Amino acid sequence: MGSSRLFLLFLLLLLYVVNPVLCDPRHLSTKHPVQRFLTVDDPVTAVRRQKVREAMLHAWSSYENFAWGFDQLQPLTKNGENVFGGLGVTIVDSLDTLYIMGLNDQFRKAKEWVAANLTFNKNYDASVFETTIRIVGGLLSAYDLSGEKVFLDKAKDMADRLLPAWNTTTGIPLNSVNLATGEAHNWPWAKGNSVLAEIGTTQLEFIALSQRTNDSKYQLKAENVIKVLDKNYPADGLLPILIDPETGKPSGSTISFGALGDSFYEYLLKAWVQGNKTQAVKFYRDMWETSMKGLQSLVRRSTPSNYSYICSKDGTTLINEMQELACFAPGMLALGSSGYAPAEAGLILSLAEELGRTCYNYYQITKTKLAGESYRFEAGKDMTVSSAANILRPETVESLFYLWRFTNNQTYREWGWDIFEAFENNSRVSNGYVGLKDVNTGEKDNTMESFFLAETLKYFYLLYSPPSTIPLDQWVFNTEAHPLRIVNRVDNLKAKPMSREGMGSSEGGSRGRKVGLGLRHK
Ligand code: DMJ
User: Does the pLDDT at position 391 exceed 90?
Assistant: First the structure.
């Protein structure tokens, strides 16, 4: 074959496999945060990435057609519903996914909606946790990716409305606050207590907000919570899921890496990553490592197939059950593994891989090949579904993404594809994606959760994208999969405002984060 034909073939191959975001000339700028160079990858991966992008387009257009401006879509009845006070949560949660996938027209329309219609002066008792991770996190991520100031202004407006929740004796926030009046309270079922995962899952967003506005109050409020908890931190690092906001002490003795506990542990690690792993944030890492000892004390192995799982605990009683929600843990362990000395790092990464195998098997043992919400582990029976719904959750896919990034083992991409196809076969309907009431019968529900667009589809997309798309030494994902740029941490809280150029781009100024510090994931 002549050299010109070879060159033509090469060009064709290049056109076929390049990331779609690169088709937009805007993305060829070396300053674009998503991808700075053309990356050729294998055709199978490229086709998979396109299919995931098409799934996002299907989910988004369905929402656009039938639920525009509502919090989420009900695909079967073709209408919108408001479950978060009518904040257009699906739009805000989707912004960064649209941007990363290069769905530029859709991103532009979403941005216009945010600028013109997203207002927060609502007489609505908002969940501080949900509003922080979806709205504040979604807006900050859109700001970091696009540089459009409207997103930062809206994030600040929302955070200011949430702040009254922190007005307690200890500074541990209450879990709900009225967006118009600032009146705050805890969930009635928690009997005056605050929920661990909810008080411990605002740090990334609030620290990021302080960095970008040069207003220290957000960082101080959110970080104080962890410092208060640190004062009475248990030796095994396992905090009960309820905390008394007046004393800062645990209430009850239920320990969980699933609902109500999960992202507290995730944010200990990620606040350390976000803070450039410096001395100023070492307390986060220390607490996290203590908690990981506790996590290991809860790990058991099933019979006959030796699946590792994380028990929950009530008092001194171990409960042999693990929710799919806890399947974020393999990803967290993989992300945290490289901060250990080599021998321990290897052990932690192996545990992450073992748990990842368990979570993948959650999908494989059901008729639809989609995971239920929770699994029981009984001697001789490995795992059985104990709660059969699937609401399009992301945790296992999230962990497969981290496991692939940290091990480069292509098996995780294959496992991810099995799960993607199961969503396509069972959850895709003509007007969006729905959850399942039962993963064995396949009976559908009528809800397309916003986290399907924010998280599940984004992690699938990244699983089939090169690691240079949102590199983990420059970005940290909040618990709703919104990537926040890692920038220099400000501890001198009177520091001058940081310029956009200083915000962590590898081409950035001297105040930007040095690429290559810390996490090396290949
Ligand atoms: C999301 O809102 C976040 O991932 C949160 O941490 C847990 N619940 C859902 C997804 O399952």
Answer: yes
